[in-house]
């Protein structure tokens, strides 16, 4: 390890390793195949770059982020480390040139895109090299459960047998739920003892979910109150980006925009304005942010609910990279669910739809939970023994908790009486005693109109809360249906109580919001 620390100082100018970095590097240098799960900004790169320097021979880095490869390689070279990359941006001759210089020795790190490994000729070329380490970046791409599955990642393990002595393997990712970690370990044959997960909680971030706000008014007011603070507003669609941008522009705010429908030149221009503090606020789709290293982002606001927790945490996590207090705010409306379902339905790969729907449910639950928001997220990623953050909107909520067990029993028994095969909206209408034609068939039920003192929308929100509490579960599908969980049965049998924060009226209605 002493040697590793010396290399750290010599090439990167840092004095000490972060805790998990040290463990991971030790493990790799002991020739153990390793999985390293660490949040963005946690310092994953050094976990393979230091071993690459310490070991003899070449380290191959497999990365899907072609646009970042050149930056990485330039950075390494400027630190005096011989590195190179091969991807589709190079011509045939350039690839041959890089391979020639790699064969001649000296190169310590070779970055390649995963698709290369499907080329037999290229693999033949690799065979002749002295490879001691294979680093697989963005390793979640190997798993169907990952949020960014790439079929070419499935071929990676085939190259392990190219050499008489298998190189050590290190897989790295920022977003692996327990399911994904298991998949990675199984496909790359990594022993579960060699999985290192570092703290996902970001202590300087304060999380908030706001439901039923007039989003436009909220955003304007927030920015007015936080003049000179840099922030990102993420919106679900390009159209939405354009309208938020115009609204802020007309209010005299220095604003930039970024989405996939803009010309590359314009996108780069806007991105630079934001990075150089010429624009205070960036309004963007999820196309913005990868590889952006702006440390003083004080807030990240989501104008609509994103499609899953992975994307949310990745995007929200762009706030406060400098360690200073920053806010992550999600503006939720129940219509966001339909938007996301629609986007999932449009997906190219039909096989992914059930997985995406399940992931969607987790973020819907996040929007309705009354538990600590930071804990909810880090537990989703597999962190255990998490303590409440003490400052998110839920931890700071001082409204009293009231006993809603009886109303919960009414909802649960209605779900049972309806045969556990209907969705949230219909169930809410039955409980509200709606005259809607679709629910006439249920008028004979003893639970019809049993929650008349609430309207169907309030009941639907209550059902969302019961789902977030795992008392009701959702069977995903084009028309998701709800059913009672084991815990929910405990409520029906009066074995457990249900406590909920006293509900306060939302201050504005959605129709005030001109964007919706
Ligand atoms: P990740 O790949 O996990 O997103 P990076 O490897 O890009 O993170 O590291 C994030 C930042 O932290 C970089 O600027 C890197 O130089 C810095 N960093 C990493 N390890 C250390 C360390 N031990 N000491 C100081 N800075 C570090």
From TrEMBL:
<dbReference type="GO" id="GO:0006281">
    <property type="term" value="P:DNA repair"/>
</dbReference>
<dbReference type="InterPro" id="IPR027417">
    <property type="entry name" value="P-loop_NTPase"/>
</dbReference>
<dbReference type="GO" id="GO:0043590">
    <property type="term" value="C:bacterial nucleoid"/>
</dbReference>
<dbReference type="Pfam" id="PF00270">
    <property type="entry name" value="DEAD"/>
</dbReference>
<dbReference type="GO" id="GO:0003677">
    <property type="term" value="F:DNA binding"/>
</dbReference>
<dbReference type="GO" id="GO:0006310">
    <property type="term" value="P:DNA recombination"/>
</dbReference>
<dbReference type="GO" id="GO:0005737">
    <property type="term" value="C:cytoplasm"/>
</dbReference>
<dbReference type="Pfam" id="PF09382">
    <property type="entry name" value="RQC"/>
</dbReference>
<dbReference type="GO" id="GO:0005524">
    <property type="term" value="F:ATP binding"/>
</dbReference>
<dbReference type="Pfam" id="PF00570">
    <property type="entry name" value="HRDC"/>
</dbReference>
<dbReference type="Pfam" id="PF16124">
    <property type="entry name" value="RecQ_Zn_bind"/>
</dbReference>
<keyword id="KW-0413">Isomerase</keyword>
<dbReference type="InterPro" id="IPR010997">
    <property type="entry name" value="HRDC-like_sf"/>
</dbReference>
<dbReference type="InterPro" id="IPR036390">
    <property type="entry name" value="WH_DNA-bd_sf"/>
</dbReference>
<keyword id="KW-0378">Hydrolase</keyword>
<keyword id="KW-0227">DNA damage</keyword>
<dbReference type="GO" id="GO:0046872">
    <property type="term" value="F:metal ion binding"/>
</dbReference>
<dbReference type="GO" id="GO:0009378">
    <property type="term" value="F:four-way junction helicase activity"/>
</dbReference>
<dbReference type="InterPro" id="IPR014001">
    <property type="entry name" value="Helicase_ATP-bd"/>
</dbReference>
<dbReference type="GO" id="GO:0030894">
    <property type="term" value="C:replisome"/>
</dbReference>
<keyword id="KW-0547">Nucleotide-binding</keyword>
<protein>
    <recommendedName>
        <fullName>DNA helicase RecQ</fullName>
        <ecNumber>5.6.2.4</ecNumber>
    </recommendedName>
</protein>
<dbReference type="InterPro" id="IPR004589">
    <property type="entry name" value="DNA_helicase_ATP-dep_RecQ"/>
</dbReference>
<dbReference type="InterPro" id="IPR032284">
    <property type="entry name" value="RecQ_Zn-bd"/>
</dbReference>
<dbReference type="InterPro" id="IPR018982">
    <property type="entry name" value="RQC_domain"/>
</dbReference>
<keyword id="KW-0347">Helicase</keyword>
<keyword id="KW-0067">ATP-binding</keyword>
<dbReference type="InterPro" id="IPR011545">
    <property type="entry name" value="DEAD/DEAH_box_helicase_dom"/>
</dbReference>
<dbReference type="InterPro" id="IPR036388">
    <property type="entry name" value="WH-like_DNA-bd_sf"/>
</dbReference>
<keyword id="KW-0238">DNA-binding</keyword>
<dbReference type="GO" id="GO:0006260">
    <property type="term" value="P:DNA replication"/>
</dbReference>
<dbReference type="GO" id="GO:0016787">
    <property type="term" value="F:hydrolase activity"/>
</dbReference>
<keyword id="KW-0234">DNA repair</keyword>
<dbReference type="Pfam" id="PF00271">
    <property type="entry name" value="Helicase_C"/>
</dbReference>
<keyword id="KW-0479">Metal-binding</keyword>
<feature type="domain" description="Helicase ATP-binding">
    <location>
        <begin position="25"/>
        <end position="194"/>
    </location>
</feature>
<dbReference type="InterPro" id="IPR006293">
    <property type="entry name" value="DNA_helicase_ATP-dep_RecQ_bac"/>
</dbReference>
<keyword id="KW-0862">Zinc</keyword>
<dbReference type="InterPro" id="IPR002121">
    <property type="entry name" value="HRDC_dom"/>
</dbReference>
<dbReference type="InterPro" id="IPR044876">
    <property type="entry name" value="HRDC_dom_sf"/>
</dbReference>
<dbReference type="InterPro" id="IPR001650">
    <property type="entry name" value="Helicase_C-like"/>
</dbReference>
<keyword id="KW-0233">DNA recombination</keyword>
């Amino acid at each position: 390890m002493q040697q590793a620390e010396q290399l750290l100082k010599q090439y990167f100018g840092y004095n000490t390793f972060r805790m998990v970095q040290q463990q991971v590097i030790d493990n790799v240098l002991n020739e153990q195949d390793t999985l390293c799960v660490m949040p963005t900004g946690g310092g994953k790169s050094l976990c393979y770059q230091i071993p690459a320097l310490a070991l003899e021979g070449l380290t191959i880095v497999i990365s899907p982020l072609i646009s970042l490869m050149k930056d990485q390689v330039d950075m390494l070279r400027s630190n005096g480390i011989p590195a190179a990359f091969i991807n589709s941006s190079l011509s045939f001759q350039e690839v041959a040139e890089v391979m020639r210089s790699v064969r001649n020795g000296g190169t310590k790190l070779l970055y390649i895109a995963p698709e290369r490994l499907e080329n037999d000729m290229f693999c033949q070329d690799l065979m002749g090299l002295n490879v001691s380490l294979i680093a697989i970046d963005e390793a979640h791409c190997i798993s169907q459960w990952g949020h960014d599955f790439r079929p070419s990642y499935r071929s990676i393990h085939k190259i392990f047998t190219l050499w008489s002595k298998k190189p050590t393997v290190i897989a790295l990712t920022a977003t692996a739920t327990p399911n994904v970690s298991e998949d990675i370990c199984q496909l790359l044959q990594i022993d579960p003892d060699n999985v290192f997960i570092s703290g996902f909680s970001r202590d300087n971030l304060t999380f908030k979910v706001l439901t039923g706000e007039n989003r436009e008014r909220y955003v304007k007011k927030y920015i007015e109150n936080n003049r000179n603070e840099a922030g990102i507003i993420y919106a679900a669609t390009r159209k939405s980006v354009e309208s938020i941008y115009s609204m802020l522009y007309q209010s005299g705010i220095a604003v930039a925009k970024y989405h996939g429908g803009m010309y590359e030149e314009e996108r780069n221009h806007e991105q630079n304005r934001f990075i150089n503090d010429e624009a205070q606020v960036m309004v963007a789709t999820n196309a913005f942010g990868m590889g952006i290293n702006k440390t003083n982002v004080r807030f990240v606001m989501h104008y609509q609910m994103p499609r899953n927790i992975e994307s949310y945490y990745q995007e929200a996590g762009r706030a406060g990279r400098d360690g200073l207090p920053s806010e992550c705010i999600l503006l939720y409306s129940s219509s966001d669910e339909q938007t996301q379902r629609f986007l999932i339905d449009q997906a190219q790969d039909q096989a992914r739809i059930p997985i995406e729907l399940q992931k969607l449910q987790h973020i819907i639950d996040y929007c309705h939970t009354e538990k600590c928001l930071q804990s909810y997220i880090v537990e989703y990623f597999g962190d255990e023994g998490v303590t409440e953050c003490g400052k998110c909107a839920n931890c700071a909520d001082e409204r009293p908790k009231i006993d809603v067990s009886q109303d919960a029993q009414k909802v649960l028994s209605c779900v049972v009486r309806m045969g556990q095969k209907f969705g949230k909206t219909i169930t809410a209408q039955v409980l509200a005693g709606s005259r809607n034609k679709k629910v006439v068939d249920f008028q004979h039920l003893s639970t019809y109109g049993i929650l008349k003192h609430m309207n169907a929308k309030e009941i639907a929100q209550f059902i969302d809360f019961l789902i977030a509490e795992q008392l009701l579960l959702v069977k995903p599908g084009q028309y998701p249906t709800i059913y009672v969980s084991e815990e929910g049965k405990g409520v029906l049998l009066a074995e457990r109580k249900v406590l909920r924060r006293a509900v306060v009226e939302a201050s504005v209605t959605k129709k005030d919001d001109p964007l919706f």
